[in-house]
């Protein structure tokens, strides 16, 4: 008679896989390493995640929930003004970048690992980046800028720049903090200029 899996097994597997994928990259981690570190059998892994793509997509879905929750909270805390909300979104990205364990945006990292490929994880990552950009576009449209596309593009470059610079700037020497402060200030100037 087959054993009934522990109800926390799926989450334990996903916890381990998420940590490994984020720290080392998706290509570098095989399912055998996930199984070994999660302390489960391969059959149990495949019972919850039939393919590695399913496991990677679940990791990205979990990351998306966390990022969207933080973005929603930042926008809500900023009040009703779309300019303040845009600056709050940039500040929230900055808060991620300041984290000790920050190794880049999980979605951008995956897209860089799998350029030009089409898979379920790539679709999840691409959809998240597009959703985030759509939020910026929507808030810029509410701002009433003369050229909303240009304003949104400038803000999006600030966001992308924050994510990318974290890959090579040392958090310990204050470089990331300085970049975050500069990015938030730049976002505020972009928003203020758009209102003139």
Provide tags for this entry.
196 residues; mainly alpha; Tetracycline Repressor, domain 2; Arc Repressor Mutant, subunit A; 0% strand
- Tell me the name of the CATH class of the largest domain: Mainly Alpha
User: What is the strand tally?
Assistant: 0
Q: Kindly identify the CATH topology of the largest domain.
A: Tetracycline Repressor, domain 2
Uncertain segments are none
Shape: elongated
Beta-strand content estimate:
under 5%
For the record, the count of structural domains works out to 2
C-alpha Rg, in Å?
19 Å
Counting helices, strands and paired strands, the structural category is mainly alpha
Helix content, binned percent: over 70%
Spell out the CATH superfamily of the largest domain.
Tetracycline Repressor, domain 2
**Ends: how far apart?**
72 Å
**Largest sheet geometry:** none
InterPro entries: Homeodomain-like_sf, HTH-type_TetR-like_transc_reg, HTH_TetR, Tet_transcr_reg_TetR-rel_C_sf
Protein name: TetR/AcrR family transcriptional regulator
DNA-binding region: 30-49
Pfam families: TetR_N
């Amino acid at each position: 008679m087959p054993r009934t899996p522990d109800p926390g097994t799926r989450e334990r597997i996903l916890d381990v896989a998420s940590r490994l994928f984020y720290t080392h990259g998706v290509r570098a981690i095989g399912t055998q390493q996930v199984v070994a570190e999660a302390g489960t059998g391969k059959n149990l892994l495949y019972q919850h995640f039939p393919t590695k793509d399913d496991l990677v997509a679940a990791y990205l879905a979990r990351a998306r929930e966390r990022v969207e929750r933080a973005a929603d909270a930042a926008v809500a805390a900023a009040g009703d003004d779309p300019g303040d909300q845009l600056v709050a979104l940039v500040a929230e990205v900055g808060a991620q970048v300041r984290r000790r364990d920050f190794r880049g945006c999980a979605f951008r990292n995956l897209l860089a690992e799998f350029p030009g490929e089409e898979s379920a994880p790539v679709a999840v990552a691409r959809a998240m980046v597009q959703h985030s950009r759509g939020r910026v576009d929507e808030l810029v449209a509410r701002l009433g800028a003369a050229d909303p596309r240009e304003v949104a593009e400038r803000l999006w470059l600030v966001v992308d720049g924050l994510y990318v610079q974290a890959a090579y700037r040392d958090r310990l020497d204050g470089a990331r903090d300085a970049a975050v402060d500069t990015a938030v200030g730049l976002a505020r100037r972009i928003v203020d200029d758009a209102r003139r």
